[in-house]
Design goal:
Helix content is 54%, strand content 7%. It is mainly α and 279 residues long. It folds into two domains: 2-192, Fido-like domain (Fic-like fold, Orthogonal Bundle); 208-277, Arc Repressor Mutant, subunit A, CATH 1.10.10. The strands form two sheets. It has a two-stranded antiparallel ribbon.
Length: 279
């Protein structure tokens, strides 16, 4: 799988083919599924591809992919579009958003469509940025927003009435959702890079500071989770749980870390006294 993800974002000038997509899907399933029979490395079979739920005694079809009779034509059109040097002279990020929606709507495989689509989206973004190296993960951001992801897809892809089928699909809401999630992914990437830099600087500053193993453990936890956890600092109770020590020992450790310049005491006091990393 890792090899596949690396391959997806390499040779960015090389056109994709149907075989490329099939190879990516096959890489997701290196061993046959024991729970169900899947077509691996080939397009899906003749069975209808639907996302269905039941409400009371009624079956609700949330999404229906193109029938097998149209699949090849739809996939050919998508691949031709994706391989254009500059499709409709659109921005590369908008191109990536459209590519994602288009391929996931075609749903060309029995299984693994989401992962193949995210891989292709990574390739589109890499092509726009002209590099295979990125410090953010769109897939992780989509996973964090999984509920809204499926909701927006259902709204855009949802089975249409006969009147709606005569109209073009408006994908503005999808583009906006994609841009918001991508921006969030980039912000998280910047935060991770900042954490690595700050942690490195912190330990360079304290390379000669004598600390216990438990103090090292807590400091690394604070450094690794900066911006995500302990946003209001750490108090003696949280230190006690992290280091598995008594409340009295936790208080002494925190006081010592302040005296050694590792932590700084935040405004406030008493039993709720909190501390943060001193960079």
């Amino acid at each position: 799988l890792i090899a596949m993800l690396c391959k997806v974002t390499s040779d960015l000038d090389k056109p994709i083919t149907q075989q490329s997509l099939c190879d990516w899907q096959a890489a997701i399933f290196p061993e046959p599924s024991l729970s169900k029979k899947l077509i691996i490395g080939e397009l899906r079979g003749d069975a209808p591809m639907q996302v269905v739920s039941r409400k009371r005694n009624h079956e609700v079809v949330h999404f229906q992919a193109p029938p097998t009779s149209e699949l090849q034509k739809e996939l050919n059109a998508f691949i031709s579009w994706f391989n254009l040097k500059q499709p409709l002279e659109m921005h590369g990020i908008v191109r990536a958003a459209i590519a994602h929606l288009w391929l996931i709507t075609i749903h060309p495989f029995d299984d693994g469509n989401g992962r193949v689509t995210r891989a292709l989206t990574d390739r589109a973004l890499a092509q726009d940025e002209k590099t295979s190296i990125r410090f953010y993960s769109l897939s992780a951001a989509i996973e964090q927003n999984r509920s809204s992801y499926y909701e927006i897809l259902e709204n855009i892809q949802g089975c249409k009435t006969k009147i709606q089928e005569k109209c073009e699909t408006d994908i503005t809401d999808w583009i906006n959702w994609f841009l918001d999630v991508l921006a969030n992914a980039m912000q998280q990437g910047q935060q991770r890079v900042a954490r690595v830099i700050n942690k490195s600087h912190f330990w360079q500053t304290h390379s000669q500071t004598i600390l216990t193993a438990r103090q090292n453990k807590v400091l690394n936890r604070l450094l690794d989770s900066a911006g995500e956890e302990f946003l209001q600092g750490i108090n003696a109770s949280k230190y006690k749980n992290l280091a598995d020590v008594s409340k009295a020992t936790a208080t002494r450790d925190l006081t010592e870390l302040v005296s050694k310049g590792c932590l700084t005491q935040l405004p406030g006091g008493g039993r709720s006294t909190r501390y943060a990393i001193k960079y």
